[in-house]
Fold these 3 entries.
Entry 1:
Amino acid sequence: MPEPLLPELLRSPAAPLEASTPASPRSLPPVTSASHPLAFGRVAFAHPAEAEFAQLLDFYRVAWLYEPTSFPLRWEGDRITEMFTPDFYLPEYDLYVELTTMKQSLITRKHRKLRRIRELHPDLNVVLLTRRDYYELLARVGYGAVEITSLPEQDIERILCSPTEIAARVAALGHQISLDYAGRSIVVVGLLKGVTYFLADLTRAITRPLAIDYLAVAPPDERQTDRVRFAKDLDLDIAGRHVLLIEDIVTTGLTLDFVLNRLRQRQPASLEVCALFDKRERRLIDVPVLYTGFEIPNAYVVGYGLDYRQLYRNLPFLCVLKPEVYARDHAARLAAVNGHPR
Ligand code: IMP
């Protein structure tokens, strides 16, 4: 299909081209449409590969704009003779993406356009992507921890919070906590192990002086007694200190209730809770959570520190695993119990 020289956007009255007559190449500015939908919107794509790419970006919750900007490439007098409208713009990465099929003639033409645009706008961040390259791009924009090339066989069903969304929320929490604790220092207590990345990122977003300590609650299969207990206790004395307990996720509230009761006995000056994820629907005990990152639906989640049988913690996003993962594990455990090889 031949590429339109002037895309729809440029023919619209909202984007008058005639206004600027170039004296030199750089004086002709790109035309940007403010009316295109931002991230996750639905648009009419010119090509199925674009729809597929948009779907992939949606899956990873990467914000995108479809053909938001047209760059004049060549002109005669005040008449533009060639334009370049990259297919996508990813605002979080300030990156333009032009997709291409495997057809050599098209690739050559697009490479030529790309060379020209780089001459005119050397600071522009623009890449030409083949279908094969999609996964590589996603790896570069923050999904490096996943074996992206084998994505269809991966265990992830859907991503609930992207690295960018998490980073923005953590920064906002850090800012709020810094304001609320003005004039005070804090003892930040992290509940191991799920809190690893959250605590590391959050504390760097807090501008108050703080000390860090850790607590671990013994997991059920390690609890030799029939009562919940600390597998690791605090090193610091928290009496008279302002304590901020950091939790990865609150579900039933049972863990948090136990921990809060034990910490209150040590008479801190104040004791508040900051939880990144909250499955409020599943709450059994009403626990006081002052700072919440995200309320999430009632599904088992992994990533950004959260695990399933100690795995998936290092995924940079929060996601739901496919039910097959649990079924597979269940079958393997049953086989082990029954003495069958896996
Ligand atoms: P709660 O006692 O039911 O509130 O659960 C709290 C603890 O269970 C958290 O600190 C996590 O370690 C773990 N947990 C609860 N829900 C999830 C989940 O969806 N994924 C991973 N760990 C979870």
Entry 2:
Amino acid sequence: MRKKFDELRGLYEEAAALGEARAVLAWDQRVTMPPGGAPGRARSMSALSRVVHSKATAPEIGRLIDETWDWAQAEGPDSFEAAYLRVLKRDYDRATKLPSAFVGESAAAASAAMSAWEAAKKNSDFSAFAPHLEKMVDIARRQAEYLAPGKPHYDTLLDLYEPGMRRAGLDPLLGALADGLKPVAAAIAERSAAVSDELMRGDFDERAQLALADEIVRELGFDFSKGRQDRSMHPFTTGFSLSDVRITTWTMRGWLPASIYASIHECGHALYAMGAPAEFELTPLADGAGLGVHESQSRFWENIVGRSRPFCEWLLPRLRKYFPGKFDRTSAEQLYSAVNKSGPSFIRVEADEVTYDMHIALRYRLETALIDGVLKAKDVPEAWNAGMKEYFGIVPGNDAEGALQDVHWSQGTIGYFPTYSLGNLMAGQLAEKMRADLPDMDGLIARGEFQPVLAWLRERIHRHGAMYFPADLMKKAVGKGPEAGPYIAYIKKKYSALYGF
Ligand code: MG
């Protein structure tokens, strides 16, 4: 049986290695490719994707999964072999349950919807995008039906991004999160003048920003012998292998936190990607437990570390070094305050820790209603604006800064948004547990001794790769599945001190 398992691994490795090559092309497209390269790149990507897909869905893989299944399970549920087959079978079933005509149809619809969304956003005209959204919702429902006939569609879609999570488990989590955050946001709104971010605005040399971003991620533990940091339109992380992980950042000349916190966020994703055991290379276990856990790592470093008072103590001398004269009279306390200004905003990606999850709650409400068929695509802007008024007390002046701001729905990624909030609340749980295990966590951060923090995450989260469902991984790491309490407590404590309520 071991021989058959090795044969299966060989087949998977070939598909995975070609997938790595495709990832290099995708990275290049977003980072270094000249605009003229687009048509040729589309050709190469499409050809390579077809080869990867046919290798990954080869009938031999299905046959070998079936033949080795019982043998692998007998090794024990925590064994490499059992976990390998669990994750591979899940991916394989998904990839083979969708008829190829449907795959082609949905790729074409997504491509058309993406172009329509870009144009609609530019003109701030939702009505031009509405028929495409209606189509993408229909495609998402049919996809769910193919994958799990007769099961609630949203649950099936959610499971694509957050393995094992169901709406029945998610509703109370997101509900508790919104209920906990709303009063904090309301108290902040009454004292908005108590915190100013003025000192982070001005004119900051972009080359200096990039040099600072490199220094920060290196100090946090990003290994430049196994990764790179570049610039792109939107920051992202991708990995070709466990020892080649790429992050990107962006810079805004007038707003210094953009580059600093994008870098720290993506570095958090990268440290997770770099942290899987070497034996997971070219296996389905290398990728991480799910998007929520991934986001817990990025948000942990970005917010819980990066926006903490001790981190600001560490950061301040570096700001003075890279931007001579600009921070001479700034105190760590002022810096801490400036990077934690909170308030209602239209745009999710610019939202602060307190309000971010309310943006997610709104999207979750709308996308579940779309999938349930109780909301029509054309009525999304009205429902959006009503939700903005309810959560934030503000209404966007146009659809570009309202219902058209995010790319997700145009690509048919429905069920994805909640993973951002799950990431935040898991980060809160991890921080609570880490603080108990590392009582001098603040001192370590203030002195720039990030290694014990990273080692804790490696031990509790990273080394398990995709071995466990997110909820089970959290039980292993902190003794409980996902819950909102620790994150809300963290937010209340931090912001009541910052804003004085
Ligand atoms: Mg992220």
Entry 3:
Amino acid sequence: MIKIAVLVSGGGTNLQALIDSEKAGMFPSGKITLVLSGNDRAYALERARSAGIETAVVRRKDYETQDLFDNAVITVLKEHDIDMIVLAGYLSILGMPVIEAYPERIINIHPSLIPSFCGKGFYGLKVHQAALERGVKITGATVHYVNEIPDGGRILIQKAVAVEEGDTPEILQRRVMEQAEWKILPQAVRIVSDLLEKENSK
Ligand code: GRF
């Protein structure tokens, strides 16, 4: 069974989509066994507790350097024997040591159609603000593997969402979540966990 850690920082609506999908039997090869938050007040932690999933908090500000933070994250993941990592609204930067410890085993959901509106500084509402300012008619969400370039890894799944008259960043964010993020992230977790399980059984 592939042990999955979901890394969060905020409301956890993507985590909730994963919890609901797992409950619906969508992950025959994987199980969410840890929710690791970069923020001790994240509502995502409440969602994990209600679902009976173990939680941990590792805050970047508690560590002098990025390296010390990376090592703390790796220690928690190894303690839980984690095989695969899902970044779901996770806002801390993971350094190379973490990425090298989990090659092709970390995926991230980004709320735009990469390569648009991604990279440094593009997260949360800022992504939708930029899309509205540019006047795009179509936006969406992307699930990609995580490598050393922010939002730079191989793309796994994308889903398009229409921008509508009068959209505010908040309205657009909600539509992208409902119509894209909450659908393609569970799909990607299913694909990658099945793949890793097959690799393990070789
Ligand atoms: C949202 O901006 C979402 O689009 C992005 O991360 C933020 C929080 O998501 N993926 P969540 O509700 O914490 O999953």
